[in-house]
Amino acid sequence: MEHHTRMHAIKLVPIGNSKGVRIPSRLLKKYGFLNALVLEETEKGLLLREPGDGKLTWEETFQTMAEEKECWDDFEATLLDGVEQDDDDNF
């Protein structure tokens, strides 16, 4: 599956003591943005997305796990905790 990225040049505009961006209405409609957005800081920059339930997608979960660099060496030993092994079983 190909992933196409489109870039839009936008300007920062003053909003009180802050700065903001104007998002074209066709993009707001296209992505279903209504009243609020979530601004995420990522390694690649800022990401605007709709508010969700806070759950990670599978892709985000795997990415987060990879970034944690957690050691899973003892995982197989814990799989069998509390499991009786018969002589006929080959684990």
Which structural class should the secondary elements be placed in?
Answer: alpha+beta
Helicity level: 25-40%
Number of domains: 1
Calculate the mean pLDDT score and round it. Answer: 80
Helix-strand pattern, N to C? EEHEEHH
Any low-confidence stretches, pLDDT <50, length ≥5?
none
**Integer-rounded radius of gyration:** 23 Å
Count of helix runs: 3
Strand content: 15-25%
- In spatial order, strands of the major sheet run 1-2
The rounded distance between the terminal residues' Cα atoms is: 38 Å
- Total count of strands: 4
Largest sheet: 2 strands, antiparallel
Shape: elongated
Describe it:
- The structure is a single chain.
- By secondary structure, the chain is of the alpha+beta class.
- The chain has one domain (12-79).
- Helix content is 25%, strand content 20%.
- It has three helices and four strands.
- The protein has helices at 25-31, 58-68, 75-79, and strands at 12-15, 18-21, 38-42, 45-49.
- A two-stranded antiparallel sheet has the order 1-2. A two-stranded antiparallel sheet has the order 3-4.
- A hairpin with a 2-residue loop joins β1 (12-15) and β2 (18-21).
- The radius of gyration is 23 Å and the shape is elongated.
- The two termini are 38 Å apart.
- The model has no long low-confidence stretch (mean pLDDT 80).
SSE topology:
Blueprint: E1 12-15, E2 18-21, H1 25-31, E3 38-42, E4 45-49, H2 58-68, H3 75-79
Antiparallel strand pairs: 1-2, 3-4
Keywords:
single chain, 25% helix, two-stranded antiparallel ribbon, alpha+beta, 91 residues
At a glance:
With 91 residues, the chain is of the alpha+beta class.
